[in-house]
Specification:
Chain lengths: 112, 803
């Protein structure tokens, strides 16, 4: 299963990188969401996908899944959400000010 | 131990006075600031004179104050013959130059405080160089001399030529200084000390080290750049933009001799090696020849003097090179002939300081009184400026090597040394040794020639009042004192050279060749008359050929080479300087294109290539089938949905499709979290995915549509390649770096501790708020900052005019 997940993560990174390199500001924001999805899945995969009980002690199971990566991913999800929303509004403001979302047209404007 | 002795105070006293000078300048405007400065070098000169009896007895005065003791850096002052000789030159000529500058620089027009601060800075730095025993301290003062020199050259900073000259001297001397530092560090690596005396004690260890040659080359580079040796001499003529007192002091008598000092100081360490011998004598003799040839082409009095300084420095350097052979033989065979070279070097060093100082000052007087230094405009000044004429005549005759002045003596001794060079019989001297006397002789002819040109063009011929802006007359007495003192020294040393020999030349020679301290050969005795020998014939030849060349000048002034005033090596320097700046700009422009995507491509390509190379190089790509979880059918379906979703996001034609695909991808990930037993993650992912999608939808109303043609085909291909590289790399990395190989996870700890220590059953939540609560605290901070930022971006809009 890990191999399959590694391939999925690879596809997410590939698509994310491809969009990050595009000229459209909106696609750059979307790409960051894809990249963070990829990173979260990678974290989970790296911890090992062996089956065990969910990390709840009340289940009184023999073995549990590792809770630490889950805590890390939870933190990462919230942070990437904060950053994505900020970037989205930033893109919105940029478009309002400059009437374009083409990154090539945005560079070297007189505002610098 | 930590007490400064009088010697320490003497060394840094110029620096201390430099602090006070601006206040004196500000509050005592009626009196020329120079008078206050003058007191110090005079006191110092008298103070250093006191050491003469001690030093000529062969004693050494040394005092140490720790500076950075943990690094072995101590402020050691050390007075032996060589240091004392230089200290006397620095303070003696320093006093005369300050006196001269009082009359040379106007109290009203010039910013005197700056001038004297820089000059004192220089004087202190120079004393520090010659009196330090610790090489790091020496280096500190060495760079301070470069700095002070650049400040003094650009004293009239509103002129472009001054600034260019200062930049050039700074670049070249600091380049040399840095390489010298490298040499010093190499020596300290070998010997584990920064003290010169301790290094001399370990000279045989240094000689057998593999760093011997590199250390020697780096230190010589420092010495050659400072002492304007070929081909680093080009800064010196341009430094003539400085006020004349500065040229007289720095660029003839003291700073340019710092390199000579360094070579002499290091001779006990490196001397005796063939490389040292050949490099120094070859560069010296080439500098001697080149300087004398170039001086003839100059039309500016100070230009001629600058090249003649270069040439004379080359002469001293040659002698030091030849003299270093002394250290090859410790058992005295032929030692007196090598030793003669060192004696001559020291003697000529003193002579050059006296006559060159007086010549510069005379040139300054001529400039001051006529308003020009161009020899084509000058002429017939003999009767108008009789005292300047007399002083210049003495100085020029000494420089040309005519009797009965001191230059004649050192020139004769120089010829003796180069003639003996052929008899050395070591370091392959028998093959190329013959070149030394020949080149020396030719250089002397040209020395005679430019002296003659300078003399006859300035003082004889017809006086043309129309050439000058002011009424020309003899200089005021104050200006004449200093050059008169120096010119009289030229005559005194010419007639009575032996007053110098026992008192200062002998101790200095002992410093350069320490093992001869008790030797019978060391009996310096200089005579005016040696009988009719080869040297005298050579001098007569110089005079005859020089006169013939001078008389035929009308014939060869028309040659194009004669008209080129600027040294051809300046083109190399200018080319390098321009090349570095335009080359640097071109290089930066070639990749810094203000293009965000291009930079991303650089970063990603580097990651792919470097990480990929390292993974292949370290052979870490591997599979670990034993730890993999089994694959279930529904998981495969989910993976297919995710991949399809991701690809749809990328290729979608409309933004709504793209958004829908992004949402489905997010929800698929939430289901994955369910499958892999992460209930909290699944909850959060679902909520956040929903909120993000809503946020996108809200913003979409205001955001532009996707455009079809926004990316060109070629950039799409490049982006595709880079993106594929990243994807493959991440996949391979994820498979190869799979965990469970080296150590177990922390799961057992959390199972044991979550309830017992933290009182919670949900391990993930206990980690978030208890075990790793700080993560959560700052994650909350991140959300808060993002919220404030978003609010500020929407509500606040600061227009440019409001800023």
């Amino acid at each position: 299963m890990e191999i399959l997940m590694a391939i999925t993560v690879g596809v997410l990174f590939m698509v994310g990188t491809y969009l990050l390199l595009s000229k459209s500001l909106l696609k750059v924001v979307i790409s960051l969401m894809l990249l963070s999805h990829g990173a979260h899945l990678l974290l989970l995969t790296m911890a090992g996908l062996q089956t065990g009980a969910p990390p709840l002690l009340s289940l009184e199971a023999a073995s549990y899944t590792d809770p630490l990566p889950q805590a890390l991913i939870l933190t990462a999800i919230v942070i990437s959400f904060g950053v994505t929303s900020f970037l989205l509004v930033l893109a919105y403001r940029t478009y309002k000010e400059h009437k374009t979302d083409d990154l090539d047209q945005l560079r070297g404007s007189a505002d610098e | 131990m930590c007490v400064f002795t009088a010697l320490h105070w003497a060394t840094i006293s110029p620096l201390l006075l430099a602090i006070i000078i601006p206040f004196i300048y500000k509050y005592v405007r009626q009196i020329h600031t120079g008078w206050f400065v003058l007191i110090l070098p005079v006191i110092l000169f008298i103070y250093f004179i006191q050491f003469l009896p001690t030093v000529s007895n062969g004693d050494i005065i040394s005092n140490s104050v720790p500076w950075v003791p943990s690094l072995g850096i101590h402020f050691n002052v050390y007075v032996d013959g060589l240091s004392l000789l230089f200290a006397l030159l620095i303070t003696g000529i320093g006093s005369l130059v300050v006196l001269y500058s009082i009359f040379y620089l106007s109290k009203i027009k010039e910013q005197l405080h700056k001038f004297y601060v820089y000059l004192l800075l220089f004087m202190g730095a120079m004393l520090g160089v010659v009196l330090s025993d610790n090489l790091i301290v020496l280096y500190t003062f060495w760079e301070l001399t470069s700095l002070a020199s650049a400040l003094l050259i650009s004293y009239w900073y509103t002129r472009k030529k001054s600034r260019d000259g200062a930049q050039k001297s700074m670049l070249i001397t600091v380049f040399g200084g840095f390489s010298m530092l490298a040499g010093i560090i190499m020596l300290s690596i070998i010997t584990d000390t920064f003290s010169i005396r301790e290094m001399i004690a370990q000279a045989d260890i240094i000689a057998s080290s593999e760093l011997f040659i590199p250390a020697m080359l780096f230190i010589l580079l420092g010495a050659f750049t400072k002492s304007a040796q070929f081909p680093f001499h080009i800064w010196l003529p341009d430094a003539m933009e400085a006020p004349t007192p500065v040229s007289a002091y720095l660029h003839s008598a003291t700073m340019v001799k710092a390199g000579i000092y360094l070579v002499a100081r290091f001779t006990p360490i490196f001397g005796g090696a063939a490389e040292w011998f050949w490099i120094i004598s070859t560069f010296g003799i080439v500098t001697l020849l080149w300087g004398s040839l170039s001086a003839v082409r100059q039309k500016d009095l100070k230009g001629i003097l600058a090249f003649s300084t270069i040439s004379q420095l080359g002469l001293i350097m040659t002698l030091l090179g030849l003299g270093s052979a002394t250290l090859y033989f410790t058992d005295g065979q032929n030692v007196e002939i090598y030793l003669a070279a060192i004696v001559t070097a020291v003697f000529h060093l003193i002579n050059h300081a006296t006559f060159k100082g007086s010549l510069f000052m005379s040139a300054g007087i001529i400039d001051h009184e006529t308003g020009t230094r161009d020899i084509r405009k000058l002429g017939g000044l003999m009767t108008i400026m009789p005292i300047t004429f007399t002083m210049s005549l003495i100085g020029l005759a000494a420089m040309a090597g005519l009797p009965p002045f001191n230059g004649f003596l050192s020139k004769e001794m120089f010829f003796t040394s180069v003639l003996h060079a052929t008899e050395f019989g070591i370091f392959n001297m028998e093959t190329f040794g013959m070149l030394f006397p020949v080149i020396a002789w030719i250089a002397s002819i040209f020395t005679f020639l430019y002296c003659a040109v300078m003399f006859f063009q300035t003082f004889t011929g017809k006086f043309e009042p129309s050439n000058f802006k002011k009424v020309v007359h003899e200089a005021p007495a104050g200006l004449l004192i200093s050059p008169l003192v120096l010119a009289s020294l030229v005559v005194i040393f010419g007639f009575f050279p032996n007053i110098l020999s026992k008192s200062i030349i002998e101790p200095a020679v002992v410093s350069i060749a320490p093992m001869l301290a008790d030797s019978a050969y060391l009996d310096v005795d200089i005579y005016m008359w040696h009988g009719f020998n080869t040297e005298l014939m050579m001098t007569i030849g110089v005079v005859v050929l020089g006169t013939i060349l001078f008389l035929l000048m009308n014939k060869w002034v028309k040659l194009s080479i004669y008209k080129k005033e600027r040294d051809p090596f300046n083109r190399v320097y200018d080319g390098l300087l321009a090349g570095v700046s335009t080359g640097g700009r071109k290089l930066t422009d070639s990749y810094m294109k203000d293009n965000f995507r291009q930079y991303l491509i650089y970063i990603y390509s580097f990651i792919v290539l470097f990480l990929g190379y390292m993974m292949i190089h370290l052979d870490v790509i591997a599979l670990f089938p034993e730890v993999y979880a089994p694959i279930a059918f529904h998981e495969v379906t989910l993976v297919v949905i995710m991949i399809a979703g991701a690809i749809t996001v990328a290729v979608a034609k409309t933004r709504l499709t793209s958004l829908a695909a992004l949402g489905s991808l997010g929800f698929a990930i939430a289901i994955f979290f369910v499958l892999f037993r992460a209930p909290d993650l699944a909850l959060t992912q679902l909520v956040i995915e929903t909120v993000s999608t809503l946020l996108f939808l809200l913003c979409f109303y205001h955001l532009p549509l996707f455009k079809e043609t926004i990316d060109s085909k070629s950039s799409q291909i490049v982006n595709g390649i880079v993106a594929t590289g990243i994807g493959v790399l991440v996949t391979v990395l994820a498979i190869s770096a799979h965990n469970n190989r080296y150590f177990d996870s922390l799961v057992d700890f959390f199972v044991d501790a979550s309830y017992e220590q933290a009182g919670g059953n949900n391990m993930v939540n206990v980690i978030l708020v208890d075990f790793r609560g700080f993560d959560t605290l700052f994650e909350i901070a991140v959300l808060g900052i993002a919220a404030i930022g978003i609010y500020a971006m929407i509500k606040g809009s600061i227009k440019e005019e409001e800023l």
